[in-house]
User: Which sequence fits this backbone?
């Protein structure tokens, strides 16, 4: 027995009330093509309809902010006539199905966001989250995702300089693949995605259009996976054809677009991302308050018999939309020919329509030939800006109090601290060795340390001695216990990472990876997380200049732990010498900088630590976020390291912040890269070994007296921990391990888990 | 001052880095687009790293048909110094200007890491200023860098002292640890490591200087 | 008995093939005209120990689908290599 | 007329095949036993406009040798795709 067919709007992901809204806008019924346009533009992925009301609470202003959220990328003024553009995005669901292409197209997409601003892409970072590696499918996902980022990023010619690597059961069918990109531009090359000038052309640059990713945003990014086995459970009919990345096309597109912008040939430019051509045309038109006529027959097509809705919503990769005056078109064509990039006039900027009530409305008209039949006609801004905003129900999880009461700090047995330490250490080198991290001769600190640090230089940029630093951070273990303080602490951790390379934090971008927004607990987590981020950014004077929200990360009805990923951008004013790094010297004194104990009820909380999680303990009370205890420490460490970067002589030989795995892991990491041990006299039990809360730094110095005096002068608490030397890591009588054992375990952990060795 | 041409194929990405290195060493660098049919009046040519034509088919397979390659071949035949770095090395082998071929790395992954090179011959435009047996720390950055050739070719490489650089700890499965080779005359050299990325201690190593100094110096000597 | 098997892995129709397209674009300058619809794929040859050609083929097909290709974007076909 | 052509590119005997070797090593853990001598190669399909099957094949073979393979390490064979 067959049931009545699903109405079209629902098949396109629109609710009945959204259909009513559309009727209201148009004062008539939409035709099927129009409905398809609304379907993709009003999808969760494009419209942020569940999250927008919350994102408004994030601070986004700052004197140095040139472009805030809303454009392809946020841009700050870095000084010396240089702007830095930065953006982060997720490619979670595509990567679950085809890990190589999913990750590769994630890189391609984020780069287009950056060079659409006129910035030359200079760096990529890749925060990755997978299920446990005892499962073969998860191992396949890891290898596929990493090789996809490597394959695309290296070939397109942008160094990948860091990221994150987290394993947890909750990502098993739903890995998270976030990609952050940074670019730099001479500030006078800044470009925006705005269409203006009646009669101007909308020129489609790059690849031809195929059926790839039709409905990708609505089907994939805006819905969860049905079963717990990921791809296998996706309904075959709904499976969109997978997008395939072409880094070679993208490389030529970058060169062509930057040359067009350098020569001043374009009025506005925007990338084609989710929702493809409809998104780029309606957004540029809406921003410029103009109308746009699009001729679908002018769009170069890779496949035969494509329908209008397919052409308009295809997510074929490596395409850009440039707004160009008719006089400049031949010159644009010549630049594109040089780079072997296709350029076709697919749209005309037209006057807004004067409505009966006197208002003027820019209409997006889809036509069959510029003079041909009008297939769809809707207000551009209704697609781009007028999706309904939802304040979805929020509810604090009913079991949260019980979870918090189950605190491992109190009752978890101590165990064998040495064995615990060895179990916690993972060197992600197997991942980042696969990425070109050095291109453009900028990388002073590459992947594998606290933050990446690069010279602020690149083809076509004004000369500068400055450097920029980036760190991506997240902690789903913390955020599951307390999304508000967990997120705030994550921001603090990012600032700490920047401090280690001497960079002052200037801006934040974020990618909010959460579960199903129709679950009130998930909306509560999202809202709390936004509040935590806003609180931390306010307290640390950091504007949030961009972000991305990825919802419906779930499988079999289980939501992922809340996973806000924070990207921090910092500046080093003078970068002529490398920062200290982790390499300490025999005989150095070891100093803990910052408050030794956490803010909050428990001095050394183990809640949410790697140590507790490995033991299956996921409850407890997190440290609280208290900016007043952080700021002077961050400023002090930043200044100490920055003076070394500026070429000054210093007694400081090594710096590392205490983060995942706690103090024990930080010391073990330093020992294992230097192959020199350390002796720490006294610690407050295993809590102090493994507790995780940001705001503490391990500093090695050749002159403890002088260093401590400077710290005290800056009002920063310090504790003398011990001395560097020997072949063992001795920690306060709690554990003692050979450095060579630490190095071997840490170095082989990942390849061992992937069954590569 | 030596005038060094740096060839830009679509998909090349180390052209600016190579040019910057040449200029740091007192040479002048000129970017030459792959469609050029003549090299003009240059003292040396560098084929830089990157992914010419996306490395589609095989690294270098499409690039060797670029118009500029006839001019490069003629320049090499006339004794002009030619250096292929990474992708440039792959292009030179595909074009038959250097013997052998570069296969995928043994571990089947891309590798970006520092390596220690041993100078195995100083009879080439790249290694002429280095000391035989010297160890140099220079990064590699490639997927297809395992040098391969048949036994006959290998025997003649050894006999004619054409193996100019070897890895101390072979990272990629190259035959006999080969990191760089020259043609018989020593004026055409290819290597997988990136000497232009090892030009200053700020970026980790300055050991690439002695190699590129030698190369740029040949060009200068031409004046 | 040992059977020689060939597995061909090709992109599914409709999936973009940038490698094939790039090769196709390069051909005219190399003096090859009249070549179109270039698609690049992978080829595997191996030997299987099985008690019948049918079983050899069945194992090969399952290997092709589970390990040598991703069915989301690729088709994989195994066949016995009659030549050997 | 248009002819469908298949070109198979395989590594020459004696040339190491790390890809084939890696697949072979992975097989037992995935439950495939009795598989050996795995070699990885490439496959190209395209269409050639020619006035006879012989000419189509000749062009394809020349394309295979000049462009699609590197004779230093690979062998290339073109054949007409009878299936199409
Ligand atoms: N997926 C990845 N890609 C590239 N680099 C990575 C990746 N994962 C981790 N890294 C690098 O390894 C180092 C350690 O990461 P992490 O433990 O997250 O640092 P921290 O605790 O200081 O935030 C960092 O330099 C990071 O950039
Ligand atoms: Mg750190």
Assistant:
């Amino acid at each position: 027995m067959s049931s009545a067919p699903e109405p079209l709007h629902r098949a396109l992901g629109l609710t009945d009330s959204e259909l009513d809204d559309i009727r209201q806008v148009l004062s008539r019924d939409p035709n099927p093509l129009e409905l398809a346009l609304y379907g993709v533009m009003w999808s969760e992925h494009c419209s942020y309809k569940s999250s927008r009301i919350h994102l408004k609470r994030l601070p986004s202003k700052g004197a140095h902010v040139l472009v805030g959220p809303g454009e392809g990328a946020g841009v700050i003024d870095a000084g010396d006539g240089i702007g830095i553009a930065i953006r982060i995005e997720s490619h979670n669901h595509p990567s679950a199905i085809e890990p190589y292409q999913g990750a590769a197209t994630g890189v391609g997409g984020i780069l287009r966001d950056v060079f659409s601003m006129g910035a030359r892409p200079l760096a990529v970072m890749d925060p990755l989250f997978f299920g446990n590696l005892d499962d073969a499918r998860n191992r396949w996902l890891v290898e596929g995702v990493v090789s996809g980022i490597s394959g695309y990023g290296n070939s397109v010619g942008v160094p990948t300089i860091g990221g994150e690597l987290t394993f947890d059961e909750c990502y098993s069918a739903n890995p998270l693949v976030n990609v952050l990109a940074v670019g730099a531009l001479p500030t006078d090359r800044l470009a925006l995605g705005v269409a203006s000038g009646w009669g101007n052309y909308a020129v489609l640059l790059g690849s031809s259009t195929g059926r790839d990713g039709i409905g990708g945003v609505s089907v994939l990014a805006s819905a969860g996976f049905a079963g717990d086995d990921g791809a296998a459970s996706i309904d075959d009919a709904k499976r969109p054809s997978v997008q395939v990345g072409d880094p070679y096309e993208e490389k030529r597109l970058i060169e062509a677009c930057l040359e067009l912008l350098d020569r001043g040939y374009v009025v506005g430019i925007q990338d084609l991302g989710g929702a493809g051509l409809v998104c780029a045309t309606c957004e540029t038109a809406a921003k410029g308050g103009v109308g746009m006529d699009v001729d679908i027959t002018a769009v170069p097509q890779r496949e035969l018999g494509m329908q209008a809705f397919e052409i308009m919503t295809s997510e074929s990769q490596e395409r850009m939309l440039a707004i160009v005056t008719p006089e400049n078109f031949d010159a644009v064509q010549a630049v594109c020919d040089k780079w072997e990039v296709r350029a076709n006039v697919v749209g005309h900027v037209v006057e807004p329509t004067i409505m009966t009530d006197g208002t003027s409305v820019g209409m997006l008209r889809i036509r069959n030939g510029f003079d041909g039949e009008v297939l769809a006609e809707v207000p551009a801004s209704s697609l781009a800006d007028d999706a309904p905003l939802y304040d979805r129900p929020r509810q604090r999880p009913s079991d949260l109090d019980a979870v918090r009461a189950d605190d491992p700090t109190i009752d978890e047995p101590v165990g064998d601290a040495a064995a615990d330490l060895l179990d916690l250490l993972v060197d992600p080198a197997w991942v980042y060795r696969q990425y070109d991290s050095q291109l453009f001769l900028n990388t002073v600190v590459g992947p594998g340390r606290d933050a990446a640090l690069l010279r602020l230089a690149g083809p076509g940029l004004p000369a500068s001695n400055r450097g920029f630093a980036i760190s991506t951070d997240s902690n789903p273990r913390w955020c599951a216990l307390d999304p508000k303080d967990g997120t705030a602490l994550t921001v603090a951790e990012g600032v700490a990472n920047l401090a280690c390379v001497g960079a002052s934090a200037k801006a934040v971008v974020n990618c909010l990876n959460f579960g199903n927004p129709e679950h009130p607990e998930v909306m509560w987590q999202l809202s709390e997380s936004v509040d935590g981020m806003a609180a931390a950014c306010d307290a640390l004077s950091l504007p949030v200049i961009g972000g991305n929200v990825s919802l419906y990360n779930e499988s079999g009805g289980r939501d992922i732990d809340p996973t806000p990923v924070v990207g921090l951008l910092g500046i080093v004013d003078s970068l002529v010498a490398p920062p200290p790094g982790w390499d300490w010297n025999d005989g150095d004194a070891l100093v803990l900088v910052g408050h030794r104990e956490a803010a909050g009820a428990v001095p050394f909380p183990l809640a949410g630590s790697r140590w507790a999680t490995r033991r299956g303990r996921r409850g407890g009370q997190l440290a609280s976020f208290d900016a007043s205890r952080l700021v002077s420490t961050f400023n002090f460490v930043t200044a100490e390291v920055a003076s070394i970067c500026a070429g000054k002589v210093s007694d400081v030989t090594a710096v590392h912040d205490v983060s995942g795995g706690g103090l024990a892991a930080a010391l073990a990491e330093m020992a294992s890269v230097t192959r020199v041990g350390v002796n720490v006299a006294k610690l407050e039990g295993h809590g102090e070994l493994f507790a995780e809360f940001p705001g503490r730094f391990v500093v090695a110095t050749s002159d403890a007296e002088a260093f401590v005096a400077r710290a005290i002068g800056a009002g920063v608490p310090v504790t003398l921990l011990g001395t560097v030397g020997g072949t063992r890591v001795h920690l306060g009588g709690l554990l003692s391990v050979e450095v060579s054992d630490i190095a071997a375990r840490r170095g082989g952990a990942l390849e061992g888990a992937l069954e590569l060795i | 001052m030596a005038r060094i041409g740096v060839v830009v194929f679509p998909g090349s990405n180390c052209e600016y880095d190579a040019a910057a290195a040449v200029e740091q060493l007192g040479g002048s660098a000129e970017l030459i687009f792959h469609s050029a049919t003549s090299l003009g009046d240059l003292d040396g040519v560098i084929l830089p790293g990157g992914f010419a034509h996306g490395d589609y088919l095989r690294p270098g397979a499409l690039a060797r048909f670029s118009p500029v390659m006839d001019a490069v071949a003629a320049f090499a035949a006339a004794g002009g110094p030619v250096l292929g770095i990474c992708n440039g090395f792959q292009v030179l082998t595909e074009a038959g200007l250097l013997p052998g071929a570069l296969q995928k790395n043994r571990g089947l992954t891309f590798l970006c890491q520092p390596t220690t090179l041993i100078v195995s011959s100083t009879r080439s435009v790249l290694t002429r200023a280095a000391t035989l047996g010297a160890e140099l720390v220079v990064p590699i950055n490639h997927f297809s860098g395992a040098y391969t050739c048949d036994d006959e070719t290998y025997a003649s490489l050894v006999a004619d002292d054409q193996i100019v650089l070897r890895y101390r700890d072979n990272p990629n499965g190259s035959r006999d640890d080969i990191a760089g080779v020259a043609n018989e005359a020593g004026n055409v050299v290819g290597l997988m490591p990136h000497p232009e990325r090892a030009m200053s201690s700020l970026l980790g190593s300055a050991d690439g200087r002695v190699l590129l100094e030698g190369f740029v110096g040949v060009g200068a000597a031409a004046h | 008995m040992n059977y020689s098997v060939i597995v061909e892995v090709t992109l599914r129709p409709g999936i973009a093939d940038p490698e094939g397209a790039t090769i196709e674009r390069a051909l005219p300058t190399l003096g090859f005209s009249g070549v179109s619809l270039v698609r690049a794929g992978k080829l595997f040859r191996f030997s299987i120990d099985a008690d019948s050609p049918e079983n050899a083929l069945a194992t090969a097909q399952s290997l092709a689908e589970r390990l040598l290709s991703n069915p989301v974007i690729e088709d994989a076909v195994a066949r016995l290599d009659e030549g050997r």
